[in-house]
Amino acid sequence: MFPEATLCLRAAGVGWTKAGLLAEVRPLTAHGSSRRHFSLQRCLGARPSPRKPPRERVDIPGLEKITYADRMHYVPGLAKPENPPWERDYKDPHHYYSPKISDMPLFKEQPCYLFHQKTNAMEGVQQALWLTKTKLIDGLPPRLLSLAEDPANQIPDQDERVKNAIKHARFWDTTEPRPVQQRYSKVLLQNLLHLCASLQPSHPALGRRILSENYSLAATWKRGQDLFQIRGMNGLLYTSMDPLPVLLEPQDVEETKEHVLETFYPVSPTIDLQQVNVYHHEKNSTGFQEGYPYPHAHTLFFHDQKSKLCTLRPEQFRAKMLMFTFGNALARANLHTEPQSLLERPVVVQAVGTNGRYFHFLVFQLNTTDLSEDSGVKNLVWMEKDLELYEYAKVRPLIKKKQVQVPAGLAGYNPQTFHRFLSLYLNGAV
């Protein structure tokens, strides 16, 4: 007589779980279409009611509360006794309560602005240039690009072996029809580094370098009245026994005094940076202990990984590359010296960023560590962005309207992108 009500009661008879109710509560009308039951769906989809705020305790001076503490059990009408918090005489990690931020030993009134791996700078490279007091130069230095043009510095069958490295990362490393970007970008970078390392017999200086992973960086500086820090891990770091050669001579560095830094008013330069009050005031660390045989940062390698937790657009990704390259140079310069308006020997650090297809190249030269004022000598950065290593790498052909739009395999290989990669790798060894 009541088929729909019968099915609802039948669904309620199955264990009161969301999966069981959704599986059973599907009555059909005479035409075979499903019908919603608001009485059940509201219970399944509604949000839980918010918790009631705790009742405020009122203490009236001159009156003593009558509690049930002496009776050792709850008594209606009597107040709940207030017992002092019990403190353990041992450390229990499962019952640890951190002190208030204001009570911590490293608490300071002046806030510090942090830049870390997941920072998504709103203004991108322009914001990073202002924070680091840097002048941007488009393109890489010609002297650096000429290193890969020399046939003596090239790899035998270079283009064919680079294509095989790309195919290994996109086709041969996995059996999936569509490989994951986080995987093939790392494999491709490892293949290219392994390919460049094959030049060590003809370039013995390459043996004075080593790859480091998951090292922790910390650098502190002042910009105006604000305090900034770079902290965190940034992936692969190529370190060397010898520092990189300086790109500009001192007389050319003096000309940067005339450069005016671009501002983005009314947007604050500290936008999207994490503000903290618990920090070490003067913390500068390259991530390695004193006496490490490879103390000089050579090249940083970044993976542009797309994840649910952190997704950076290309502009913000290049800003992160610039900030961490600057942080490595600044931490090295600040180890044993105070802030200087002009360094006797500028610190040069390189960076390469990729998502497995596009590459970004960056060379940073730290000329000054006195970053509080906008005037004076500026730091320099050479940047080349959005260089395509290949156009397509398809496991299966792309077919539309019975016509092959993109054939299977590798297409559109660009040898100039690897030339820049090789030039940065050989810098300091030729």
From TrEMBL:
Pfam families: PDCD9 (PF07147)
Transmembrane segments: none
InterPro entries: mtLSU_mL37 (IPR052482), Ribosomal_mL37/mL65 (IPR010793)
GO molecular function: structural constituent of ribosome
Major site of localization recorded for this protein: mitochondrion
Subcellular location field: Mitochondrion
Gene Ontology process terms (BP): translation
Keyword Ribonucleoprotein: yes
GO cellular component: a single term: mitochondrion
Mitochondrion as UniProt keyword: yes
Keywords: Mitochondrion, Ribonucleoprotein, Ribosomal protein, Transit peptide
Annotated family: Belongs to the mitochondrion-specific ribosomal protein mL37 family.
Protein name, entry field: Large ribosomal subunit protein mL37
